[in-house]
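job 3f2a | input accepted
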Amino acid sequence: MDATVLHAPGDIRLEQVPDPEIIQHTDAVVRTVATCVCGSDLWPYRGISSVSKPRRIGHEFIGVVEQVGSAVQTVRPGDFVITPFLWSDNTCAHCAAGMQSACANGGGFGGPDSNGDFVDGCQGEYVRVPQADGTLVATPEQPAEELLPSLLTLTDVMATGWHAAVSAQVRPGSTVVVVGDGAVGLCGVLSASLQGAERVVAMSRHADRQAVATEFGATDIVEERGAEGAARIMDLTDGVGADAVLECVGTKESMAQAFASARPGGMVGFVGVPHGAEAPMSDMFRRNVGLAGGVAPVRGYLDDLLPRVWGGQINPGRVFDSVVPLSQVADAYRAMDERTAIKVMLRP
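job 3f2a | predicted structure (348 res):
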């Protein structure tokens, strides 16, 4: 089959690799219908995360079950499924506590499982999914083509934006600031709005992203950054600051921006993959600003989010502004790296 391989920073290739097979009784093999490039894929692509050897890449995909192991009971061949970006058994103590992202028997795509057997990256034609019963979520029936973008967001960015809002304790009537205007940040705007925020401030400098943010419920747009951005937030909130801040980037600057935007007693929910980010402990102590978040437990949110997408109440798939064949995956990475696309869908 064809699959994406990152050889070195800036060097993405589509290559022929072995077709996946059932290895464990709890596995499923899923045919990819749609996959995509994530902002976190850009860290190794840009060389910010080390790339010491060629590696399979990609962690977001939706598709159709082709085969299942003998122990799999909740999905069967022919089912259309959503695959969270981490697999989990959904039964261990951590999963039972709603933290499937820390499953004792879970893991990520593009590397070995707990038995040492390779698990495919998701930017390819087929994927072996371990712990299929605890991971895969079947849709009520085969989805219409126009639903695919929104269903694909449920594998990561919509659920991650939702996790940011949950972690920041967004409440009805609250004022929320979202730092970051990538797909996760935009889904954070939508999530804050859905969770009852009265005012949602999107920090964005890009007209196309501002338009999506406004469509998703942003009441205000702030283009300034740093001290100027914090001052603008204070102007908008009569000098108080935000009740909740969603940090959706992961850099030292974005974390500083988030805390500078929060009111005393406010909460920062962070979901950006940390790269140099630091928590300002003294400021947190002095102003009683809290910090929570981390890797989104996607599987735990799907029972809530899937019906909203399936029923047409929300359309997070708007974050996809480009769709290209999997054969053009190198172009997709380039477009996202150069910010000429918000998020690119890949179709095998």
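job 3f2a | The first strand starts at residue 2 and ends at 8.
job 3f2a | closed
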